[in-house]
Amino acid sequence: MTGSPPIAAATPPVLPTGQEPPKGRRLLTLLALVAGIAVLLFSLVVLLPGLRSDPYTHATLQLVGDAGNGGRLFRLNCAGCHGLAAQGLVGPNLHGVAHRKNDRQLIQQVVSGRTPPMPRFQPDPQTMADLLAFLHSLP
Ligand code: HEC
Q1: Is residue 96 part of a domain?
Q2: Share of the chain above pLDDT 90, in %
Q3: Pocket probe mutation, ligand 1, options 69, 72, 82, 111, max atoms within 8 Å of Cβ
Q4: Structural domain boundaries enclosing 118
Q5: In contact, 72 and 137? CB cutoff 8 Å
Q6: How far is the CA of 82 from the centre of ligand 1 (A)?
Q7: Is the CB of residue 41 less than 8 Å from the CB of residue 85?
Q8: Domains in the chain: how many in total?
Q9: In 43-95, which ranges are continuous DSSP H helix?
Q10: pTM of this structure
Q11: Which residue from 31, 61, 75, 79 puts its CA 20 to 30 A from 89's CA?
Q12: pLDDT on residue 23
């Protein structure tokens, strides 16, 4: 044990006095700052509400859906507007809808009633999970 060599005192880099950083760099710093704030605001407004999950959605997403039963429920409740093969009638074609919308959005679409004339459905979580599995099965 001879002891480690003393650590050299770090000398902070000092700009020569009386000399401002070049204007271009200040502008770049400002732009980076503005971009950073924009990203932060975007994530607060757009991403966080999407990540937050209400208890119903949470319960639904914990379950494994049965696409077969979902199809049966679809033909009973949804086919009148979306077509027996989900090809679209009054409501839009739902093929590939699970690529356009995430599971939370799909659940909201079914339970919120926010897009009339589509009614507000209130399936229990397992039924919703089955419908979700069916929507995922649509090519
Ligand atoms: C009374 C007619 C009607 C019924 C019944 C209905 N829908 Fe809809 N649905 C619509 C309409 C109209 C839209 C388009 C709403 C909009 O975006 O303005 C829609 C949109 C959707 C969308 C979003 C499509 C997209 O491309 O974003 C999904 C998913 C959906 N419906 C699923 C269902 C399911 C599942 C059921 C049955 C539980 C159902 N719908 C029952 C009329 C209906």
Answers
A1: yes
A2: 68
A3: 82
A4: 55-137
A5: no
A6: 7
A7: no
A8: 1
A9: 48-51, 55-62, 67-77, 79-82
A10: 0.72
A11: 61
A12: 72
The predicted pLDDT at position 50 comes to 58
Question: pLDDT band for position 134 (50/70/90)?
Answer: very high
- Length reported for the chain: 139
Query: In angstroms, what is the span from residue 94 Cα to ligand 1's centroid?
Result: 8
Cis before 139? omega within 30: no
Residues 69 and 130: beta-carbon distance below 8 Å: yes
Tell me, what's the pLDDT at 25? 84
Atom 39 of ligand 1: nearest residue by CA position: 78
pLDDT at position 112, please?
94
Q: Is the CB of 83 under 6 A from ligand 1?
A: no
6 assigned to some structural domain: no
Centre of ligand 1 to C-alpha 17, Å, is 67
Is the pLDDT assigned to residue 93 strictly greater than 70?
yes
In a domain, 85, yes or no: yes
- pLDDT at residue 90 tops 80: yes
pLDDT of 24 reads 76
Residue nearest to atom 37 of ligand 1 (CA): 78
- Residue 25 covered by a domain: no
- Among 106, 109, 124, residue to substitute to test ligand 1 (most atoms within 8 Å of Cβ): 109
CATH number for the domain that contains residue 82:
1.10.760.10
